[in-house]
Every structure is written in structure tokens, then in C-alpha cells.
Amino acid sequence: MKNLRALVVAAVLGLTQAATAQQADLSYFLPKEVQYNKDVPTPKELLGYNVGEWHVSHDQLAMYMRIMAEASDRMTITEYGRTHENRPLYLLTVTSPENLKNIETIKANHKKLTNPSESGSVNIKDMPAVVWMGYSVHGNEPSGSNASLLAVYHLAAAQGPEIEKLLKETVILIDPSINPDGLNRFASWVNTHRGKNLVTDNNSAEFDEVWPRGRTNHYWFDLNRDWLPLQHPESKGRLAKFHEWKPNVLTDHHEMGTNATFFFQPGIPSRNNPLTPENNFKLTQKMGGYHAKALDKIGSFYYTEESYDDFYYGKGSTYPDVNGSVGILFEQASSRGHAQESVNGVLSFPFTIRNQFTTTLSTLEAAQAMREELLTHQRDFYKNALNEAKKAPVKAYVFGSEQDKAKAYHLAEIIKQHQIEVYRPKEAFKINNTTYTPENAYIIPTEQPQHRLIEAMFEKRTTFQDSLFYDISAWTFPLAFDLEHAALSSKNFKSSQLGQKVEQLTFPAGEVVGGKSDYAYVFEWHGYYAPRALNNLMERGIVTRVATDKFTNGANKQFDYGSILVPVAGQPVNAEELHKTLQEVASKNGITVHAMATGLMPQGIKLGSPMMLSLQQPKVMMLIGDGVNSYDIGEVWHLLDNRFDMKPTLVKTNNFNRIGLNKYNVIVMADGNYNSISKDKLRSWVQQGGTVIGMGEAAKWLADNGIGNITFKKDEEETKARKPYADMDNTEGAQVIGGAIFETRLDLTHPLAYGYTDAQMPIFRSNTLFMERSKSPYANPVMYTSNPLMAGYVSKPNLEKVKNSAAVDVSALGAGKVIAMPDNPNFRAFWYGTNKLFLNSIFFGQIISGSSARAEE
User: Fold this and answer.
1) What is the pLDDT of residues 774-833, one digit of tens each?
2) Which CATH architecture has domain 393-501?
3) I want to staple 854 with a disulfide (CB 3.0 to 4.6 A). Which of 161, 443, 779, 845 is the partner?
4) Which residue windows are transmembrane per the record (predicted)?
């Protein structure tokens, strides 16, 4: 043991403690039968307060973990990433000192279990089990991260043969804060509103944190839904470590409503994903016995096999299940502060921490006792998966895009992070009237250890055992990306079709074709990053125009609707500087810019045509704050700021009525309630030429307030037969569209569809807002088809309502436009396929003809 005491003096730095009636010293949390090394400093000695007395801030948590790892010979610490706010993400490796000395060998041997060609030779009798402890992916569910203080102290200081045996037989990985930005936001709120004497009245401001609250990360994303999409640095770094270790068990510590008790998995059996083997459920159930015993011992109430499910693989407790691990969800009733009244009496923060710590220990006990079972399960999982792949009808999946290589690149990027092998085609081949080439396509053979995960990412499931889902029911990735794709059977796929294995992905090259021009340049709108390229130019004051019809240059290159014209004359820079700028922009955004020597096109419109419309740079206001769905508006913010280099202004709804709107030409209203803003002020602004984009309930709000001429279908009154009260939740829940994928048809000539080349577009829907078709034949550029369900669950009544309904409505209001989208085109940042529909609304709403839009009646 290193000299911990010397480090304590430097760490505390004058921190003080505040005595309260709710203090709980270590004896409240720790098992009574365990002796602890007095040379190991307690959390109070490092932090200056007892665990649970204050909410630990992330900087304090990080300091504590670094000191403990530096001082203890049982643990090491690794930084696996940085959050959007530049906070470090840590993973501690805890095991016996002897194991630590050989940790790389242990890791390498353990990973062999996931390789069927090697796993048969592995001796699991002497192999440690690997347990991953993940705490507080939701920042305002802090009992997990605060329990990690106790977990690390216990593992560093506990003495005796039991802890020595545990450390010898397990490798414990501790992620003390999966969401540092959210945790810090919440800790700051509740600590700021805590009095010397704790107030338990649930009307207190301490329990009513301000919008957007601490649940989410910097861009207001739920990181517990990002295990599959991998759109954030927290998830990318964590997943790399997950696959580096391939743990046998992963715990995911959450909180739920204050009036609840404690939940541990398994969840509802009928809602397990069918790709998860039955043995996973049995192991989860067996581990539940250990949790029940431990919670019984301290007198805590709990439940299991209710409420929650294991269907969506993008959650922390479910992703392990499709990777040969066992994911365990813990849900603790939340004090949402330091102590709060509940139906079960006053719920204290220390009590919530104790339950999380108790089930941390019960997980370790179960993993140690079930070590060989868990290791065997992992080995068998991958062997069986490979055998299933050999018998499966689908031998490979192919996807790609000739026109948008960047979008295909990003899907391949996600897939590779899941340890799935990706290849280029050896040579061009055609299937379903689409040609896939080595330059524009990727092939995923299904005969590999990650077979089940591949199926989970590509399948289009429409039949289910249960009609209720805790999260979404479909997430088919090639549909989300709106890419050409196909499932290849043994009839149209041979392993000889596999070309180069993709070891390192390279972002598609962009270039200026034709050298420097003294006349003009043109680039098409097909590329995913074409909007960023346009905005990059606009930021530099470069004048641009958009083609509202097709044309062909002298080299027989046809340019589609939405192509961007950059004249050389009349720019703020000379021809040399403009060429250099376009080279830089083309390279950054993976687009091809064509130099034009003349404006006289052999076919189609000419470059000086009145159908080449001038563009203004979008000046975007995003409404945020109370009433607004923070997830949906966060997705907009992330898209514009993080991905497209735009600078939207975030305006709180309670400030809208008092500020001037003349700075902005686009207002984005995500799903939410906007009754606090002046409808007259917004209507006047639109009439003067602004574009307002309303999504989800915001679109309904615009319709209800006469801003635009939008009509939604009304719920039909029906005579309901008498039904059992006990079935009410299930019966009503089955009418919810929790998240499914539907087919729409685009008008490819409409400005909102610029950049799309296929009239069929998959769209994600997670609500029951159904928009009527417009009386104008030009106002609905996106319509649901007559047979729209592509993947996921929808009830028969709702399916009938979706059929042939409008997915987008464009209304003219004075000189401005009202664009209504009941669905979310930016869902969880991985719906790349409909991002352009939203971006087109921002960039091209200004050019939509008023006579083509549905005029206000």
C-alpha cells in the first residue's frame, strides 16, 4: 500500500464539512463484518464531508478517483475521453496487485473468449471474471456516482481473505461518472439550494431544477440511448474500453420516481429482444437472487421482472446482452436532492446511495460465485452466433451511395466501432438495380462473431411478442441513413466478392475540378456536408445562388436541383482567393466543386437564368427553455453547431416577447409547448419574410394558433367496450408509437427535397400527430405512402392514420413561410437520412414560391 495519508493533506486543501441531521458516516453504508485498513483515507478525509451529505461535483469525484488510484496498489486509472465541456472520463481497473502486474495478459486471454477460433483452448477455471460498474449516465440520477466513492473506498481498504479472493477472481472496471457534464450541472443546482437544515417539502426549489435539467449531456442528449448510435465523445470512448475488455457483467445504475422503491433486472420477459439468448435472462435472474438477499438484509424494498425491458440495444443495460455479456439495470427511487417527502416516508440521499452501493457489492458477489457460468456463457455466445451466421439466409449486407460518400462513411464509422468487420467490394456488382462499387460501397459479411449485433443493426422487424416498448421499436441503420442497401443471400454473395478489409476509414476526398475559373463554380447539393460548405462560404461573405432546375455543362455533367452557383464576379475576394477558398471548403466537406468557363449551358437553364435564385445566409434563432422538449432542440443545436459549423442563437421562451426579431430570418421550434410566447409577434415576423420551422407538438401549436394553414387529423370518437381495469396500461400503451420507421415519397423538384436522388425516404416517427393532406397540390413535398411501415411496431388504427398523410406541410404567410414537420428529422443525431430535409428548410425556406405553398385562408 502506498502512502495515502501524505496525499490526503494535499487533497483536502481546507475543505470543510457542514453538520446536518441527515449525515451518515461510513458505518451506515459499509458491511458490518468487514475490517478496513485505517491507512486508507475515507471519502470524508478527501472530500471534507460524509458521503451523501453533499452531492459530489465532478471535479471532486475526479480528484478522489485519481488520488485513490495513485495511492492504492489494487487499482489504476485511465482517462478514456473528454466530454463536450472538456471534463475527463475515467475508468478504474481494480483487481489484486498480482493481477495488475499481468493485466495485459489477463485482458488478452479474456478477449479470446469472444473469438470462436481461439476460445476452445482457453482454460476458464483460473480466469478472472470481468465486471464493469457504470454509474449515473443520467446526471440528475446521482446516487450511482456518489456510491462509486464507497465502491472505490471499499475495494481499496477492505481487509481479509474474502476481499483478497474477490480481487484475485475478478477484474472490476469502475466508470464513476458516465455523464460528467450532467452530473456537475445537477450537483451545482441541488447544492446551491440546500439549506443548513434540510427541507423535505417537495415544493422546495431544490427538487425543481431549471430547464434543461441535469439528466442529459452538454447538447441535451440522453447518453443512455447512445450505445448504438455513438454520436458523442462519452459514448465513443466508453465503447472502445468496453470492447477492449469485453466484460462478463455490466451494471447500469439509475434512478426513478421519488415514490418508487428499487428495481433490478430482469425486466418484463416478453419484452426481451429475440436476438438475446435465453441463457442471458436466466443468468440475470440468478444474479437477481443475490441482489434480493442483500437488499433484504438492509431492509430495502424492491421489485423485478416488471416495468422495464431489454429490447433496444442502444441502452447501457441492454447493449452488453448482444455482446456476450450480462447487462444489469438498477433503478433507485430518487431523492432528487438531499431529502424529500415520499409515499414511503422521507427519502434521504444517503439511503439512495446505500442501495446502489449494496447492489454493487451483491453484483460482485454474484459475479464471483457465477464466474465460470459467466465465462462459459460468453464463450458459448460467440460460438453459437457464428454457427447461426453459417445457417442464416443473409450472408452479407451491402450499403453505399454514389452521390453521398460522406453519409456512407459515417455509417461505416459507427459499424467499425462495434468491432464489426467492414470490407469494400472487390469489384462493382449490381443488385436491385443499384450498382455498388469499391469506391462508394461497403460490405458487412454476417459470418463473423458479431453476427447478432449485425442483425440488430440491419434487421427490419415488424412482428413482436409484445406491443409495449420502454424505448424505440426500430433503429435500422441503413434506413436511418437513407442509403442504398441490400441483404445478400448465398445466391448473390460469395466471399470472393470481398475486397480490401477496411482497417482505417478515410473521409471522402473533396476537390475543385477544372482548375481556377474566372467565371463561376458549381457544386451539387447531394453530399451530406454540402450545407456546411455553403455556410462556410456565406460566413466569408461569398455570394451564392441556388439552381431551381437542372442543367448540363459542356462536359456532359448534369447538375441537379439545388446545385449551388458561386460567381467569380462581385465577390469580396479576387479570383485567386476564391479558388483557394473553394479548394479548402471542398476538401473539408468532401464535395466536388466544378469550375465553369461559360454560363451558356448546352442543356437546361443557363447560369444567368432567373431560376438561379440568390441566397441569404440563415440567421437562426432556436427557442429553448420551459415547455420545449430538450432532447429535440438539443439535437438541433448539436446538428447546427457541432456538425455544420453554424451559429444558432439560443433564445429562452420567456425572453421571446421582449426581444427584437429583425436579426433573424429562421426560427426553429422543436417539439414542445409554446403558450408563453406571443403568437401575434411570431405571425407578424413570418409575414415580413421569416421562415418558422415547427416540429412535433410545435407544428400543432402553429396550427392551433392560426400561424400557417395546417390541419391535423382529429381523434375519432369511438364507443369503447368494457375492458378489465388491470389491462388499462397495456391496452392504452399499445396505441403509442414509441419509435418506428415509415416510408414516405418526396417531390424531388421541391426545395425541401433538394439533394435527394431517390423519391423514397424512410422517416422516423415517435408520436401520434397525423397531418392532413393540403388542398394545394404543391404544399406537401413529403407524403407517407399507402403501405408505409418499414420497421417497428404500430397499432392497426394508427397505421391507418399514417397512410397517405402529410409528413411535411409548407404554408405561405405574407412574405414568409411556415414549415410543419410532425416528425423529428434529427432523431438522436444518427438519423442522417432526414437531416437534409431539416437543413433544406433552413437554407431554402426563403426561396419557396408563395404561390406553391399552401396560402393562409
Assistant:
1) 999 999 999 999 999 999 999 999 999 999 999 999 999 999 999 999 999 999 999 999
2) 2-Layer Sandwich (3.30)
3) 779
4) none
CATH architecture of 511-614: 2-Layer Sandwich (3.30)
Crossing angle (nearest 10°) for helices 451-458 and 371-391: 60
β-strand partners of 819 = 693, 810
Task: Check residue 11 and give its pLDDT.
Answer: 45
Per-position b or e across 814-834, b if 16+ CB within 10 A of its CB:
bebbbbbbbbbbbbbbbbbbb
The beta strand positions in 215-357, using DSSP E, are: 249-256, 262-264, 326-333, 339-342, 345-348
Distance CA 515, CA 583 (A): 10
Instruction: Work out the burial of residue 611: count CB atoms within 10 Å of its CB; fewer than 13 is exposed, 13-18 middle, 19 or more buried.
Output: middle
pTM over 0.90: yes
SS3 367: helix
CA separation, residue 543 to residues 573, 580, 583 (Å) = 10, 16, 16
CA gap 241, 100 in Å, rounded: 17
Contacts for 692 with CB less than 8 Å, ≥ 6 apart: 666, 667, 669, 682, 685, 686, 702, 707, 708, 816, 817, 818, 819
596: burial class by Cβ within 10 Å (0-12, 13-18, 19+)?
buried
Rounded to the nearest 10 degrees, how much is the dihedral formed by the CA atoms of 48, 53, 56, 62?
A: 40
Return d(Cα 822, Cα 676) in angstroms, integer: 21
pLDDT tens-digit map of 424-436 = 999 999 999 999 9
Assign domain 620-712+733-855 to its CATH architecture. Answer: 3-Layer(aba) Sandwich (3.40)
The DSSP code for 432 is: T
Q: Tell me the per-residue pLDDT of 345-396, one tens digit each, with 9 for 90 and over.
A: 999 999 999 999 999 999 999 999 999 999 999 999 999 999 999 999 999 9
Q: What stretches of 246-277 show up as alpha helix (H) in DSSP? A: none
Distance separating alpha carbons of residues 830 and 529, to the nearest angstrom? 15
CA-CA distance, 486 to 458, in Å (whole number)? 10
What confidence score (pLDDT) does residue 734 get? 54
Q: Give yes or no for a contact between 195 and 207, defined as CB atoms under 8 angstroms apart.
A: no
Strands, E, within 568-654: which ranges? 592-596, 603-604, 612-614, 620-624, 649-652
Nearest residue to 671 via CA among 766, 761, 793, 774 = 766
Which residue from 260, 478, 450, 338 is spatially nearest to 21, judged by alpha carbons?
338
Predicted local confidence at residue 720, as pLDDT: 66
pLDDT of residue 472: 87
| 590-611 pLDDT tens trace | 999 999 999 999 999 999 999 9
**In this model, does residue 165 exceed pLDDT 80?**
yes
Look at residue 76 and give its three-state secondary structure.
strand
Using alpha carbons, list the distances in angstroms from residue 665 to 154, 506, 711, 840: 58, 36, 24, 14
Q: Provide the CB-side half-sphere exposure for 455 (13 A, CA).
A: 22
Do the two domains 511-614 and 620-712+733-855 of this chain adopt the same fold? no
CB–CB of 800/792 below 8 Å?
A: no
Please state, in angstroms and as integers, the Cα–Cα distance from residue 126 to each residue in 110, 281, 326, 364, following that order. 11, 25, 20, 17
Can you identify the CATH homologous superfamily of domain 4-20+28-386? Zn peptidases (3.40.630.10)
Closest CA to 248 of 114, 139, 77: 114
**Which of 341, 561, 460, 357 lies closest to 788 in space, CA to CA?**
460
CB 349 within 8 A of CB 52: yes
DSSP letter at 310? B
Average pLDDT, the chain: 94
Q: Helical H runs in 507-641?
A: 530-539, 575-589, 630-637
Domain residue limits, the chain: 4-20+28-386, 393-501, 511-614, 620-712+733-855
